[in-house]
Please model this.
Amino acid sequence: MENIRNKFPVLRQSIYVNTPVFGPLYDDLYDWKQEFELDFLLKGSRMRNKSLETISDCRTIVGRYFNCKRENIALLNNFSTGLNMLLEGIDKKRKVLLLENDYPSVDWPFYKRGFDISYAKIDANLELNIKNAIVEEKVSILALSIVQWQNGILVDLEFLTQLKKEHPNLLIIADGTQFLGTTNFSFSDSAIDVLGVSAYKWLLAGYGSGFMLFKDDVERQCKLQTIGFNSADGMPEKKELIRFAKRFEPGHLAPMNFGSLKFSLEFFEGIGKDKIAAQNEKLGKIAKVEFSKLGLLQDMVVARNAHSTIFNIKGDQGKFDYLTENDVICTQRGDGIRLGFHFYNTEKDLNAILKLLKTRL
Model:
C-alpha cells in the first residue's frame, strides 16, 4: 500500500482520517483532470462526443463494480437530489420507518412530504429494533444509511436479506455514501431496492458526482414524472420510451465529474476490491479494540459485533485542538471527535493517533 499512499499529497504532510467528510484528491486523478480540462480548452464543442462517451463509460463501470444492471443506474450530482426525486413518485400514504438521528438528507425528504413516519432506535440492538418496528407499525418502506454518519454503526446486510425474505413487499431504500468504496459489495445480491451515494467521500471522485442503483421492481412502485431532453438522450423520438433510471437525468451531466468517478473506480479495480476490503476490515477491527481499551467509544458501539471504519471517540474541544495541532485531520461530530480510516491509512497512522490520545486521557 505504500506506493498507493505516495499518490496522496495530503498523506505526506498529515494523518488524514477525515474521509467521512471528503475523500482526498490523488496525483493520478489530478493529472487526468488537468488533461481533460485542457482538451476542453483547446477543442471546445468538439469534445462533445468524448464527453458523452465518458459519461456512458462511467455508467458501465458503476454497474460492473457494484454488480448492477447498466440500465438500472442513474447518474446524479449527489444522493440528496436523487432521493428527493424518487419520493415525488411514491405514494405518500405508505408507512415509513427511519432511524433516529440518521443523516438529515435521509430523514428530511420524507418528513417534508408528509409521510407517516416511525423511528427505530440506534443502539446495540439496532436490527431487532428495526424488525420489531416493521411488524408493530405495519411499515412498507425502510429508509436508512448503511453506515451511520456520526458514530460509524454498520447495519447488518445479512439482516436486511432475512428481513426482505420475511417481508418481500418491503421497499428498502439505503444511503451508501459512508459505505460504498470501503468493501466488496454486490447490489444485485443484496436486499436493497434503491441504493444511492454521493461519490466524494470513500469513492474519492470529488464533488458533483453520485448515482442511484435500482432493482427492477422499483419502477412499479414509483410513478416518477421527472423528464427532460437528456432523459431521452437528446432524441425527441424517444420521449415516450424513457427508461426509469433515465428519469433521474433530465438535464445534462458534467463529464468532468463523472469522468472522475470512472477514473476512481478504475483506480479501485487496479488495487483490487478484496484488497481494499481486507485493509479496511483490519484497520476497523484494530481501531475498535484499541479505542475500546481507552474507554473512548459509546457502549452501544463496543457491544456490537461488526462495525465500519468510522469511529466517534469521546473528546472535548481541547482534545480536538490537540489532534489537529499534531497534524491529525479529523472533525467534530455530536459530543465527540470523528475519525475515519480508509485503505490508504495504516496501522502506523492509528498508532500515532493512539499515542496522542493517551497523553490526553
Notes: The chain has 14 helices and twelve strands. The two ends are 32 Å apart (CA to CA).
